[in-house]
Amino acid sequence: MDNSRYEGSLKLHKSFSQQFLIGAAVNMKTLVTQRELLAYHFNSLTAENEMKFERLHPAEHQYTFEDADRIMNFAKVNGMQVRGHTLVWHNQTPAWVFENETGGLVDRDTLLERMKAHINTVVGRYKGQIYAWDVVNEAVSDSSEEQLRSSKWFDIVGEEFISKAFEYAHEADPEALLFYNDYNESVPEKREKIYRLVKSLKEKGVPIHGIGLQAHWNLSHPSLHDIRTAIERYASLGLKLHITEMDVSVFEFEDKRTDLISPTSEMMSLQEDRYSQLFQLFCEYSNVLTSVTFWGAADDYTWLDNFPVRGRKNWPLLFDKEQLPKGSYHKLVSR
Ligand code: HAH
User: Fold this and answer.
1) What is the mean pLDDT of residues 206-219?
2) Could you say which DSSP state residue 298 is in?
3) How far is the CA of 51 from the centre of ligand 1 (A)?
């Protein structure tokens, strides 16, 4: 592979090799367009979409592994680890999973059988090659009244859908590390709900090994104090922590501007400081925090383009839209 554009520069993952793995989410496009960047600076990969239920299992008796296999192969060839994302989620799951022959809601036992078949086939296929799985994604509710969000999984199975998913995954690959993954993980109210959920799973003896902090953050929120408190709280459960989907949006939540065609120099300088403070914090907890994955690799492609504001580009990562290192990268590797 032609790594000449990066040669001589310090590999991002090398710079943190004593602390944690450094990962990036990829898709079929970026696996090609960012291949040199990925192979040079990262030592872990996650499929942005290619291992989700709808992609792997579009119909009951049909599994489609081509794209996921391609990611596995890229990782293997380049000596990278793989984090699996995600087995049970309320989004990007095909309708057939929840339907019976007449188009009504499937019964509880059948849904659990389908969950088990899915997990067994997917986790089994990559046994020994995917070292950690996001088993359940985003089951906790953002609204203050409820603990778990309403979803087809929850409405049909009840809260046990969570423990079942972990049990099935553990059976399929007893060596894989199993994670509960969520966003707004550092917001105090939701943090306590996630804590309560995972604590109850542990008390029931459910095979869960870690909590994934998605870390979709921006230049000022959540505060370093709230992030530190969340890390401490989750770590107190005796579990591993992974930062699973990190990005630092240059827009405040209230900022809905769509006129910027490049980031302002103020944004870039705030982002440098923010990344450097965040990684300093991560390093303090590197005994429990063992992996940091970005939800993308460079600003030429990010899921935050057009989301949540249509017609707006974002610049949330460590490499720019030419895939060259940003100030944030330089500050991290020269710390
Ligand atoms: C994450 N959700 C998902 O875990 C990931 O699979 C997806 O690719 C992107 C982000 C975060 C999220 C969202 O999608 C919608 C609203 C809030 C948070």
Assistant:
1) 99
2) B
3) 14
Which of 211, 214, 301 has most ligand 1 atoms within 8 Å of its beta carbon, as the pocket-test mutant?
214
Q: How far apart (Å, rounded) are the C-alpha atoms in residues 199 and 201?
A: 5
pLDDT digits (tens, 9 = 90+) for 56-111: 999 999 999 999 999 999 999 999 999 999 999 999 999 999 999 999 999 999 99
Mean residue pLDDT of the chain comes to 97
Ligand 1 pocket test target in 48, 55, 183, 314 with most atoms within 8 Å of CB: 183
89, 137 in Cβ contact below 8 A?
yes
Among all residues, which ones are annotated catalytic? 138, 245
Question: What's the first-to-final CA gap in the chain, in angstroms?
Answer: 29
Of all residues in the chain, the percent with pLDDT exceeding 90 is 96
Beta strands in 160-205 (DSSP E): 177-182
pLDDT at position 35 over 90: yes
pLDDT at 8: 85
- CA-angle at 255, arms to 250 and 258, nearest 5°: 85
**Does residue 219 come out as left (phi exceeding 0), alpha (psi in the -120 to 50 range) or beta?**
alpha
Closest residue (by CA) to atom 11 of ligand 1?
183
Give the closest residue (by CA) to ligand 1 atom 10.
Answer: 245
Cα of 214 vs centre of ligand 1, distance in Å, is: 8
Q: Where are the beta strands (DSSP E) in the chain?
A: 21-26, 44-47, 81-88, 132-137, 177-182, 210-213, 216-218, 240-249, 289-294
Bond into 174 cis (ω within 30): no
Which residue has its alpha carbon closest to ligand 1 atom 9?
A: 303
pLDDT band at 1 (very low <50, low <70, confident <90, very high): low
Residues in the chain, overall count: 335
List b or e across 184-204, with b for residues whose CB sees 16 or more CB atoms inside 10 angstroms: bbbbeebbebbbebbeebeee
Q: Return the sign of the alpha-carbon dihedral for residues 90, 130, 207, 13.
A: negative
Angle between helices 160-172 and 188-203 (to 10 degrees): 60
